[in-house]
Amino acid sequence: MATVTFDHVNKIFGDFHAVQDLNLEIADGEFMVLVGPSGCGKTTSLRMIAGLEEITSGELRIGDRVVNDVPPKDRDIAMVFQSYALYPHMSVRENLAFGLKLRKVPKAEIERRVNEAAETIQLQKLLDRKPKELSGGQRQRVALGRAIVREPAVFLMDEPLSNLDAKLRVQTRAEIARLHQRLGTTMVYVTHDQIEAMTMGTRIAVMSEGLLQQVGTPQTLYDTPLNRFVAGFIGSPSMNFVDVTVDGSGADARLVGASDWSIPIPERLRSTAGVSGRKLVAGFRPEHLDIGEAGEGQGSFRARADVVEYLGNEELLHLSAAEQDIVAIVNSSHRVRPGDIVDMIVTLSKLHLFDAETGAAMTPETTAAAA
Ligand SMILES: Nc1ncnc2c1ncn2[C@@H]1O[C@H](COP(=O)(O)OP(=O)(O)O)[C@@H](O)[C@H]1O
Ligand SMILES: [Mg+2]
For position 154, what pLDDT does the model report? Predict the structure, then answer.
């Protein structure tokens, strides 16, 4: 097992800066997810760990060893890709054993590892089948198995579930999480899917345009995003954002948006919100809105329901307020109909504020000290 450390790592393709000054320490045995929109530099970062991409500057370490110039085969890593090209004419057993044979691992050892891997991911009954006799999910398991038999110090996975249908994706997701629990090997997992990141990661590193935005546990990213990008990327449906201006001061200070949209500034954010007239962005998640009239000190606004998506126990409301779309998730017993005018309460304890220009979160001092 091993740690993986990016120390001021850069990757430049021609004149394109794909990964910028990346500093990230992946602990031994950790399940680290790199997540971000397409093109943000996830695969490039993973390929640098694998040794498939040269590092332009900085230092990459696996354990205590600087691996910048170590060839891939000497890095003690195994990689699983999105396209899991198996050898079609070989059985599952032969597919699992092939890489080990190439490395001249003794026969008895190959057999032990193949059987162990097959047991770990429940391939025992499939060992004599050919890839074409397997489902997509089973094939992806064989691809995982090929990585497992290597018994690497670090697993690298690049969107390994993207070719699977939704149901299989959920199953295989849980399987990979179980695999990690069982083996305890360091894993670096790349995905553009924030739900995958949230459900699988011990910690998550969020990237955007070649820059690391924030690293933390799923709960840290959800509760205290450091900037607007992370706030909008983590959570589904996404956080709502309303452009606001600070109005007034002290206990009477409010956040005022378009069309008389206005809520009080909760006490914990008052000192960082700044003076009257300051431009901010208020952020609140769909699940932190509810229908009802606000009492003393609560925040509420009136909205029109444009579209209602019934989800069974909940309904998703697409609302118009502050001259924009706002999404809310409420209990479906409200039975809101399109066109209804509803009063929405904002859970002020869950309100986020961001600088309108930089997007940086206004962190309440108590949280900043605790983080
Ligand atoms: N070999 C390359 N040459 C030039 N640009 C590249 C190369 N590989 C990747 N890029 C660019 O670097 C950026 C990051 O790519 P990548 O790491 O694959 O993103 P992600 O995996 O997050 O979708 C993209 O803009 C991509 O076009
Ligand atoms: Mg990629």
Answer: 97
CA 18 / ligand 1 centre spacing (Å): 6
Residue 321 shares a structural domain with residue 214: no
* Ranges of the chain with pLDDT below 50: 366-371
Q: Quickly tell me which residue has 């739900």 as its tokens.
A: 195
- How far, in Å, is the centroid of ligand 1 from the Cα of 276? 44
pLDDT tens figures, 4-38: 999 999 999 999 999 999 999 999 999 999 999 99
* 8 A C-beta contact, residue 194 and residue 230: no
pLDDT recorded at residue 276: 93
List, as own/partner pairs, every contact residues 291-298 make where C-beta atoms lie below 8 angstroms and the sequence separation is at least 24, other chains included: 291/328, 291/330, 291/334, 291/336, 291/342, 291/343, 291/344, 291/345, 292/343, 292/345, 293/343, 293/345, 294/343, 294/345, 297/264, 297/348, 298/264, 298/345, 298/346, 298/348
Ligand 1 centroid – CA 48 distance (Å)? 12
Counted domains in the chain: 2
Looking at the fold, whether 246 and 223 belong to one and the same domain comes out as: no
Neighbours of ion ligand 2 (CB under 5 A): 43
- Domain that residue 27 falls in: 4-232
Is 155 in the same domain as 299? Answer: no
Same domain, 227 and 252: no
Tell me the CATH number at 122. Answer: 3.40.50.300
Q: What pLDDT is recorded for position 365?
A: 55
